[in-house]
């Protein structure tokens, strides 16, 4: 069905990650015309898990209830029913997980939170099934974006230039679109900043994880220690566990051009001296000795420039310590698609983007900052919590609520009302 616009407009979405795909699904629902351009040759997801909180699930519901229904089919909770509302058990990384110090474990969560995680590939597969194949163009790496009197010209690596009415950059933490939005005004804020942390990751079969960790393997846990923290949680309907081992980096800067860096097994293991031998065994068996550096956009002064906007990690890439980055991308996609559904003429696109920026940026940037703070807390560098696990757990039981319990229906209502008032559209 054609969009009900008086003058139809076209949107170019750059990037087919969780943000770009969620936006595409939202635009299909709102009958907004779009083309999605992805630099890779096909839909691709790194082999890792992703956990989604109630706000992310609510976003799915409001973008397209089918998406939420399909997610329910592929997602996995904690395997012990009594841990249904637990986000993470809180344990120590040291041998014995803290028992030697008398710490028998804590946990954080909320009655309003239900643990769910999925394999990224499974999440991408359900998302792409909701997007018409003819709206997606692969092997399209954006290399230039220019604006001229209300039109945007996008050039790709293959030499093609297209003309469109709006560009929404969903091209991730290192996305090119960021330079088109910020470059002329805030050039020092285009590149992501190093969080001074890198990680190793692994996916292990649940049988092996259970053999090594016992029943602990079936439920999400955060293991903490000075300068390092590890998370583990079930994915793939309980058939596998996702393991991420984080290490603080004292060097102050990531010294390599690429964001990943291959090391040898010994280097990887020497990063985790003093860690419980069971965890090390899992790491040794299943993690490739590759360091993944963590970068974020701790400061982004605006998410738009006239007809070009940023969404997801290109706007607010965050460290993963609150498992909230994809959730923010889903929230963005919800608000952006509802706003674009109201646009009747291309000239109103910057108004939609300004409202998006004013509503989304304060919340998403707060997620970036508090995620960094959470990483500090898990590594015993929190100024108020230190290495006191009771304080750490109490902090974690509070710090997620504003993320999870956000009223998204109200945010959408406010966005729509603002747009109608500012444009005079009924
Ligand atoms: C270790 C780790 C664990 C995480 N765990 C969680 C979690 O549990 N829960 C959670 O909510 N979040 C989590 N996150 C964050 C989450 O993964 C991201 O916030 C989310 O995937 C961002 O999606 P995106 O679509 O914005 O960007 P991306 O997924 O990075 O997608 C960007 C897309 O743009 C394409 N692209 C890039 N440049 C160009 C170009 N020039 N032209 C065309 N296409 C281009 C890329 O190929 C890619 O497909 C985690 C992150 C990390 C690093």
Model description:
The protein is of the alpha/beta class and 426 residues long. The chain folds into 2 domains: 257 residues, FAD/NAD(P)-binding domain (3-Layer(bba) Sandwich), CATH 3.50.50.60; 139 residues, D-Amino Acid Oxidase, Chain A, domain 2 (2-Layer Sandwich). 36% of the residues lie in helices and 23% in strands. The protein is built from 14 helices and 19 strands. The strands form 4 sheets. The protein has an 8-stranded mixed sheet, sandwiched between helices. Strands 7-2-1-11-19-18 form a 6-stranded mixed sheet. It has a 3-stranded antiparallel sheet with strand order 8-9-10, with no helix packed on it. Strand 1, helix 1 and strand 2 form a beta-alpha-beta unit. Helix 1 runs parallel beside helix 10, helix 2 runs parallel beside helix 10 and helix 11 runs antiparallel to helix 14. The protein starts with 9 loop residues before the first strand and ends with a helix. The N terminus is likely disordered. The site of flavin-adenine dinucleotide has 33 residues, from helix 1, strand 3 and helix 10.
Summarize the structure.
With 426 residues, the protein is of the alpha/beta class.
SSE blueprint:
Layout: E1 10-14, H1 18-29, E2 33-37, E3 49-51, H2 54-63, H3 65-74, E4 86-92, E5 106-109, E6 117-119, H4 120-128, E7 136-137, E8 142-148, E9 151-156, E10 161-164, E11 166-169, H5 177-182, E12 193-205, H6 206-213, E13 221-225, E14 228-235, E15 240-248, E16 260-262, H7 265-270, H8 277-286, E17 290-296, E18 304-305, E19 308-310, H9 313-316, H10 325-342, H11 349-378, H12 389-399, H13 401-404, H14 408-423
Parallel strand pairs: 1-2, 1-11, 2-7, 4-13, 11-19
Antiparallel strand pairs: 3-6, 4-5, 8-9, 9-10, 12-15, 12-17, 13-14, 14-15, 16-17, 18-19
Helix pairs in contact: 1-4, 1-10, 2-3, 2-10, 3-4, 6-8, 10-11, 10-14, 11-14
């Amino acid at each position: 069905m054609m969009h009900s616009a008086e003058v139809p407009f076209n949107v170019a979405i750059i990037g087919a990650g969780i943000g770009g795909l969620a936006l595409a699904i939202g635009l299909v629902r709102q009958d907004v015309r779009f083309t999605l351009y992805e630099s890779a040759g096909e839909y691709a997801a790194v082999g890792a898990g992703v956990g989604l909180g109630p706000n992310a699930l609510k976003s799915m519901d409001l973008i397209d209830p089918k998406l939420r229904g399909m997610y329910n089919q592929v997602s996995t909770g904690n395997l012990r029913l009594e841990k249904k509302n637990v986000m993470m058990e809180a344990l120590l990384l040291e041998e014995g997980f803290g028992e030697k110090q008398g710490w028998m474990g804590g946990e954080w969560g909320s009655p309003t939170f239900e643990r769910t995680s999925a394999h990224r590939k499974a999440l991408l597969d359900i998302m792409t099934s909701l997007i018409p194949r003819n709206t997606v163009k692969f092997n399209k790496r954006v290399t230039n974006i220019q604006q001229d009197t209300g039109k945007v010209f996008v050039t790709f690596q293959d030499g093609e230039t297209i003309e469109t009415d709006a560009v929404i950059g969903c091209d991730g933490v290192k996305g090119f679109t960021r330079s088109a939005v910020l470059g002329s005004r805030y050039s020092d804020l285009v590149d992501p900043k190093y969080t001074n942390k890198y990680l190793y990751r692994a996916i292990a079969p649940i049988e092996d994880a259970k053999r090594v960790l016992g029943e602990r393997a079936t439920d999400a846990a955060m293991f903490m220690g000075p300068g390092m923290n590890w998370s583990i949680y079930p994915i793939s309907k309980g058939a596998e566990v996702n393991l991420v081992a984080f290490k603080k980096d004292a060097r102050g800067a990531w010294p390599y051009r690429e964001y990943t860096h291959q090391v040898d097994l010994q280097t990887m293991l020497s990063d985790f001296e003093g860690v419980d031998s069971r965890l090390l065994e899992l790491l040794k068996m299943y993690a490739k000795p590759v360091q993944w550096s963590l970068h974020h956009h701790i400061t982004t002064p605006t998410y738009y420039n006239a007809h070009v906007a940023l969404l997801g990690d290109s706007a607010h890439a965050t460290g993963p310590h609150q498992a909230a980055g994809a959730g923010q991308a889903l929230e963005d996609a919800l608000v952006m698609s509802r706003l674009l559904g109201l646009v009747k003429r291309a000239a109103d696109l910057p108004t939609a983007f300004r409202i998006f920026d004013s509503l989304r940026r304060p919340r998403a940037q707060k997620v970036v900052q508090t995620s960094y703070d959470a990483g500090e807390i898990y590594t015993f560098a929190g100024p108020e919590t230190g290495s006191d696990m009771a304080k750490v757990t109490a902090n974690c039981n509070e710090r997620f609520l504003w993320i999870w319990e956000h009223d998204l229906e109200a945010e959408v209502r406010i966005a729509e009302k603002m747009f109608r008032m500012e444009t005079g559209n009924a």
